Amino acid sequence: MQRKIPPPPRHAYASNPLRGRGATINPIGRFERLDVEPDDENRDPEEDPSNPETLYLRDSSKSALASNDSPDIGFDFSLNPYRGCLHGCSYCYARPTHEYLGFSAGLDFETKILVKEDAPDLLRKELASRRWQPQTIALSGVTDPYQPVERRLRITRRCLEVLAEARNPVAVITKNHLVTRDIDLLASLAELQAAMVHLSIPTLDPELARVLEPRASTPKRRLLAIERLAAAGVPVGVMVAPVIPGLTDHEIPHILESAASAGARTVGWVMLRLPFGVKDVFEQWLLAHRPDRAERVLARLRDVHDGKLYRSEFGTRGRGTGRYAEQIATLFEVSLRRAGLTRRGRELSTAAFRRPDLGPQIALF
Questions:
Q1: 291 CB-contact burial (10 Å; exposed 0-12 / middle 13-18 / buried 19+)
Q2: H-assigned helices in 167-205
Q3: Are the beta carbons of 75 and 141 closer than 8 angstroms?
Q4: Taking the CB of residue 277, how many other CB atoms lie within 10 A of it?
Q5: Contact at 8 Å (CB) between 87 and 175?
Q6: Binning pLDDT at 50, 70 and 90, where does residue 45 land?
Q7: Closest CA to 32 of 105, 86, 91, 113
Q8: Is 198 in contact with 171 (CB distance < 8 Å)?
Q9: pTM score, two decimals?
Q10: Residue 75: closest CA among 354, 273, 347, 336
Q11: Are 100 and 162 in contact (CB under 8 A)?
């Protein structure tokens, strides 16, 4: 008997596709005790609560770097200039992080963007501290550092300037061609074996990408970014992330072949992860955009997560278990070898690290 997909949660704005948005709902956060329901009878007819405007809010964090101790993540420190992401990827595992801020994992995540304006100055102080042990910093570990607003605010650019001055190694992952704007800084670090970039490409289907990742660069533009980075001498790879069973897994060979032709040398992949509120967001996305595939995709997800839509255990959460997960892993390995790619590139080096200058006034102390 087929399982029916549930209707949107009670606290939802809409269940229909929204132009330029990945989520179709805005469920209440899991930490919230109170909620306000829209008064549709008395609402201003010119307002559209189903498609709110994007708000940029100041983030008052006192540190630029976030530490990580998850055993299945390959970095200890990350730098996230933004919280929330305008790309609007419906599957994004980072959506629940917005619930810690009192927001929703749904539309709030892609319409209420927290901006760390002080991140470059905070980063400079942290790298200048004697407590900092030089090591690779992931840019970024949660939300995309090159989401559209970066073109105007240039916070990621200014953070890279600090990293280049300190010669501290950095590993960038993004879905946006905008990364090519900073080739000068990335190339200067690459000369010291202190930079690498991965472009995340879960699909090469432009129509699917348009609704799956509505404000990210097109797959074609991401391949062009790989080409430009490789030509500049920046080590570049591709992340097939996430692999969506029953929807995108068949594209693995084509993605790897195309990325290798563009100049990628390394590759990785991650199985679709749907922690907490992302489950509802992604299920409703399936209903809105791929209703004919919805049951198949959800059934495949349960196949790879031991009967559930998601299991959070370290080591298996990004790969899955069972026969179908093994088939995907095998397909990836075969495709990797045929494309001439490797899983890991050269280790980034801290040999050239130097502590950044804090200026003459601070140096007096």
A1: exposed
A2: 183-190
A3: yes
A4: 24
A5: yes
A6: very low
A7: 105
A8: yes
A9: 0.89
A10: 347
A11: no
